[in-house]
Each structure stands twice: as C-alpha cells, then as structure tokens.
Amino acid sequence: QLLLVEPGGGLVQTGGSLRLPCVASGSTFSLDHMRWNRPAPGKPRDLVATISRDGITTYAESVDGRFGISRNNAVNILYLQMNNLRPEDTADYYCKWNCKLRRIYPRTDYWGQGTQVTVSS
User: Fold this and answer.
1) Roughly how many angstroms between the first and final C-alpha of the chain, as a whole number?
2) Fewer CB within 10 Å, N side or C side of the chain?
3) pLDDT per position in the chain (121 positions), as tens?
4) In this structure, how many other beta carbons lie within 10 angstroms of the beta carbon of residue 32?
C-alpha cells in the first residue's frame, strides 16, 4: 500500500506563494507519472500539473507560468510550487501517483487526501 499525505495548504493573499508537498510512505517498484489536481466546474478533479517518469512537466493553461511541479525521488516527495496566486486558485488540491508497488502488481493510481488552499482577495 502507498500512502500519500499532503501536509501543506492554507490561507494566502492574492499574489502570494505557497508550496504544497505530497509525501509518500511506502516504496514503489516503478513510478510512471505524478500529478496535482483540483476541482473544476463539471470535473471533480481537474488536472493542474503533471510530471512524467522522465521529468517532463505539463500544466493547465490557467496555471502555466505561475505553478511548478517537481519531485525529490530520494525522499519520495512531490511538490507543487504556486506563485502569483489568484482567488480563482482557491480549491482543494490532490496529488496522484501512478505506479506499480511490485513487479507483478498492476499499475495503479494512488491519491492523497487533499489539502485546502484559500487565496484571499
């Protein structure tokens, strides 16, 4: 089992910054992609940012240029650096890891419990 915990989040003013960590407990056999999601109208968990196994990053248009996704494989932590925050960024943010825990196990999505980010105007 892989447990993902998101200890970050909080209240920040418009234009401020926040970094969200997603900490994994447990080991993985192979890691594919890792993502950050947040709710959007009609989408319970809309994609915010992705980092591939090769380190290639992609972003939703609404956050491109303001957010940065990164990871520290040595300590099993995924990050989302959020800069120049706007009130419309207010949401619950969820991390997701797609990986295999053992060679013979299927590739599976594992989700964090979510962390709340509130941007005040």
Assistant:
1) 40
2) N
3) 889 999 989 999 999 999 999 999 988 888 899 999 999 888 889 999 999 999 999 999 999 999 999 999 888 899 999 999 999 999 999 999 999 998 999 999 999 999 999 999 8
4) 14
Q: Tokens 């950050």 belong to which residue?
A: 36
CB burial readout 45-65, b (16+ within 10 A) else e: bebbbbbeeeeeeebbeebee
Q: What pLDDT does residue 1 have?
A: 84
For residue 77, what pLDDT is reported? 94
Going by DSSP bridges, is the β-strand pair 91-100/108-111 parallel, antiparallel, or unpaired? antiparallel
Distance of alpha carbon 68 from alpha carbon 52, whole angstroms: 13
Q: CB–CB of 23/77 below 8 Å? A: yes
Count the Cβ atoms, other than its own, within 10 Å of residue 76.
18
CB neighbour class for 35 (10 Å; exposed up to 12, middle 13-18, buried from 19) = buried
Backbone angles phi, psi at 87, to 5 degrees: -55, -35
> How many whole angstroms separate alpha carbon 91 and alpha carbon 87?
9
